[in-house]
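If it is no trouble, might I ask you for a protein's amino acid sequence along with its backbone structure tokens?
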Amino acid sequence: MLYPLIRKFFFALDAETAHGIGLKGIDFLNATGFAGLLAKPVMPCPVEVMGLKFPNPVGLAAGLDKNGDHIDGLARLGFGFLEIGTITPRPQDGNPRPRLFRIPEAQGIINRMGFNNAGVDKLLENVRRAEFPRKGGILGINIGKNATTPIDKAADDYLICLEKVYNDASYVAVNISSPNTKNLRELQKDEALDDLLAQLKAKQTELAESYGKYVPMALKIAPDLDDAQVTAIADALRRHRFDAVIATNTTLARDDVDTLPNGNETGGLSGAPVFAKSTAVLKKLSAALAGELPIIGVGGIMGGEDAAEKIRAGASLVQFYSGFIYRGPDLVAEVAETLAHVMKRKTA
């Protein structure tokens, strides 16, 4: 009952300002021992994916905590895993403000943040201070390229980030699907994708030998793909022995929101309006992969049944971001409870 009241206050503020205040509030409640005021107890639902043991299959998607400033506070809300980033080799400001827009009538959000972040070294300082990873919490680190790096040199940025975060990440997510970095989605195309995945896999193999441990990699893809593109990506993931795929990022489509306030802002659309498109890509990807690697289902999860549909479509884990903004921490417990029942039926 508390979050709807808090949300009224936050939704009266500029979206990016509210985002910063909200995360600081979560940190404060965690530090003072009052996080339970926001978070319900979460039902255990252990799953093993990518060789990692998750206490439950409910994750926080990348983008909410770009620099890993709020890891322990967010972990206290009951997530089975957290994904931080997207991070780039060098700090960058991202796109000019305003760059984050709510569409409350459709439970949607449009962002054109542009990978604003403090750089990989700052993120690593934050990760190493946090208790959550030290206590065995599963922490994904999402990596990208700097806006000033030419697209034909993009692999260099991903390799720098992969090498730096490898020893501190439970898994590494490779973001080639944000619509807010110029030409980034070109990396999803055949030859460019093949080259990038080959270089990343070679670096992963080298790092696994150096550190004496294997850290899985997941590729994050867009929802704006046709059937042939989905099949080609699935083939490339299998060929390069990637460990997982995250489906999906935000969409450039504006179906059902184009007549609403903020509905035609430039950027990626997330939340309820992307659910159907994202889930359709997930389903096609699952069929193309035929169980050869796991899928993390993201996009438009606003309740437990949405998450269940992602699992039925072929996902092994789920993540959300916009749902968390609209529903608050209660969504974590609701989704975990729903999936505990769904997964129990699947294995029965």
About this structure: Residues 2-347 form a domain with the TIM Barrel fold (CATH 3.20.20.70). The chain has twelve helices and 13 strands. The CA atoms of residues 5 and 256 lie 27 Å apart.
